[in-house]
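Q: What would this chain look like folded?
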Amino acid sequence: MNRKLNIPADVEELARKAVDAAFHLHNEMGPGLLESVYAACLKEEFTHRGIASTFEVPVSIVYRNCRLDIGFRLDCLVQNRLLLEFKSVESILPVHRAQVITYLKLTKLPLGLLVNFNVPLIKDGIQRIFNPDLT
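A: My prediction, written as structure tokens:
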């Protein structure tokens, strides 16, 4: 357990595996493709590696004790423990980080990876984002 940020060891291991898969995918395909292409390829990569994951996961919100299904979808949920949000954009904007933080709060997950595949080096496109409610 990472005491400072309270990230469970199994979530850290899933993050390591997800980053490794993203590196492999980016090395094979490079930048410049649509987000949907990277998502489809990463789904195949996770399957190849035996990593349980779900893509396009619906997320409900609760407002005034009313559950609302309004179309929020996580790009990927790895073993129901790690959130992945994919982008293929020129640069990550504050709204992209805010989106991941909101998804983390709604799902009560501790960690999310914001992955922008549209970069020359994938290491520059991956950001770890923590749930501020759990740190």
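The chain has a mean pLDDT of 94.
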